[in-house]
Amino acid sequence: MRALVTGVAGFIGSHVADGLLRQGWDVMGIDDLSGGTMVNVPKDAKFINRDVGLDLDDLMAEFQPKVVYHLAAYAAEGLSHHIPVFNYQNNIVATANVLASAYRHGAKHFVFTSSIAAYGHPRKSNSDAGGPQRERLTEDDVCSPCDPYGIAKLACEHHIQAFFDYYGGPTYTIIRPHNVFGPKQNVSDPYRNVVGIFIRQAISGQPMTIFGDGQQTRSFSYIDSVAQCIAASGWTEAAKNQTFNVGGDEPMSVIELAKRVCETVGVDENIQHLAPRQEVLHAHADHKKAHQLFPEIHRSPVSIQAGLKATVQHVTENEIPTPTHCPSAIEIKDKLPPLWRDGA
Ligand SMILES: NC(=O)c1ccc[n+]([C@@H]2O[C@H](COP(=O)([O-])OP(=O)(O)OC[C@H]3O[C@@H](n4cnc5c(N)ncnc54)[C@H](O)[C@@H]3O)[C@@H](O)[C@H]2O)c1
């Protein structure tokens, strides 16, 4: 079976490609290396360096993928307020381009990584005081995204569904991961992924920067089962034309995460609180649907602590990549957190 993976040099895309190769699939990966690195690309995948917003017809015609996994995106959610035009081109326009080209060349199935950001602020009962042990976001909840990144992901979901309704194919699977971390993640992107940022800061002896008091909570998700669910969506009949959450079930505050990272790296706590930024306070997803669709994969997810250990080990055994920069100029500088003003 032939699969095309966009974003193959990135964190999740490289793990998905690994999973497909383990299944014996032929994999072509596309990435423009704006955020990913060649070190991540599995050696048995055919690699093409290209922006997925550009014409892909030559590649699709040559490779004729049966399944397209579309993961390429610049996923800096907080920064997306400040780069809205770039965000919509990179997410919505590029997704429409990949899907149209896939369809023209006979792809049968399209797997798309959306995000928990598509939900936006959780329902009121969810965001009130009471800590993280509250209702979790389910796939039936009304989506009301509150930043350009979430808006783009939801627009992509609607586009993929409407495309199927109109053309009768490709079938699709839409996955909404959240706060994924693990080996091969980019720890040098100053704008995103708090686990990676904390690990880099701890290892390099810098203070760990937290927006606000750090009481905001997330369920940080170790990469293993996330990538396996995404890969398996290409051959799991029950996942066709489905949208589902995937990720961890263990709520943790950001301040607690910072402490755990310090412990794991073996450094003293050195935390610097910054002015709070506008963000969802508590975001947790329900995974009943993913458990039903992929019971084998979800049986024993890796704990945050064990995941941190594996991630820190990977980072320390490998060269820390040079910091990646936002691939766009900042479009709106108002309200830009000072930390991000000089390219962080
Ligand atoms: N990491 C998470 O916690 C998380 C959560 C929810 C959703 N997602 C989604 O999963 C996908 C993968 O995220 P990730 O964490 O692996 O990010 P990542 O930055 O590690 O990987 C994304 C890859 O896409 C590439 N890319 C970006 N724009 C491109 C373009 N126009 N053309 C070609 N390549 C391009 C980058 O170079 C990078 O290698 C994204 O769509 C992201 O929105 C991630």
From TrEMBL:
NAD-dependent epimerase/dehydratase domain: residues covered: 3-247
InterPro entries cross-referenced by the UniProt entry: Epimerase_deHydtase, NAD(P)-bd_dom_sf
Any one Gene Ontology molecular-function term assigned to this protein's record: UDP-glucose 4-epimerase activity
EC number per UniProt: 5.1.3.2
Keywords: Isomerase
Family to which the UniProt record says this protein belongs: Belongs to the NAD(P)-dependent epimerase/dehydratase family.
Protein's UniProt name: UDP-glucose 4-epimerase
Lineage: Bacteria, Pseudomonadati, Planctomycetota, Planctomycetia, Pirellulales
